[in-house]
Amino acid sequence: MKLQGRMALVTGASRGIGRAVALALAEEGADVAVNYVSNEAAARDVAENIHKMGRRAMLAQADVGDYPDVFRMSQEILRDFGHLDILVNNAGINSDKSFVKMDHASWRKVLAINLDGVFNCTKVFIDQMIKQSYGRIVNVTSVIGQIGNFGQANYAASKAGVAAMTKSLAKEFAGKGITVNAIAPGFIETEMVHGIPEKVRNRLLDQIPLKRFGTAEEVARAVVYVCSTDGDYITGAELSINGGLLM
Ligand code: NAP
Description:
By secondary structure, this protein is of the alpha/beta class. It has a single domain (7-235), classed as NAD(P)-binding Rossmann-like Domain (Rossmann fold), CATH 3.40.50. The chain contains nine helices and seven strands, in the order βαβαβαβαβααβαααβ. Strands 3-2-1-4-5-6-7 form a seven-stranded parallel sheet, sandwiched between helices. Helix 1 (16-27) packs parallel to helix 2, helix 3 runs parallel beside helix 4 and helix 4 runs parallel beside helix 6 (153-173). The radius of gyration is 17 Å and the shape is globular. The relative contact order is 0.15. The structure holds NADP nicotinamide-adenine-dinucleotide phosphate. The site of NADP nicotinamide-adenine-dinucleotide phosphate has 31 residues, from helix 1, strand 2 and helix 7.
């Protein structure tokens, strides 16, 4: 097992990519704090699956966009786990509209969760990671942050912001035993893409050389890779998991 004894927090771990990441980290031996914002039943199911593997799991409810809430969650995690080794900033939303129709509230909401959320969660754990001279921070960005997309100005800006922040933090913390990387998925089969109309989906598939959307588990394996000793020499990277959509 590659992550035996490591303590991890995965934000937005109740479903989709976050759920797969939480389970993959636990499979490799990590104890996992399962963050969610509202879907407690789904988060509980993830925690129960982790318990069945013989690892510790705790529910960690918080809105990542709300700094005081995130600070409270961090205190609960540090109390229960003692310390944190791995932080996966995965929680994210979209609120798509052409720019002309996009209102300020939708812009702010996506930026608050997708970009401020990464700041908040990293901020509350970084001092402790520096103190222990060890940390693995993985930020889930998106191919949309790399290429932009019609109707996703807010989402694209948030993800490009996280990608740039990843590189800055990688430089700041390289000397402290902390690596900071981003994983940039393309189109992955989760609730986030279930609303894509058939016609648009087919147009997207035409542009993906591997001719399919990815799975959450395929993204999770990349997260395990950069968190394990296999990834010790990787920092400041943005690893694309997109079926060749961008190359
Ligand atoms: P998803 O299925 O919609 O799941 C979203 C998760 O985030 C849920 O666990 C949700 O918790 C949580 N969440 C939402 N708002 C939150 C908040 N304010 N605070 C804490 N948790 C919150 O999404 P997904 O497709 O797995 O996406 C996960 C990440 O991958 C996102 O950052 C997304 O931008 C990125 N991504 C996805 C794709 C894709 O094609 N699916 C592609 C590229 C990048 P509740 O269940 O409690 O609501």
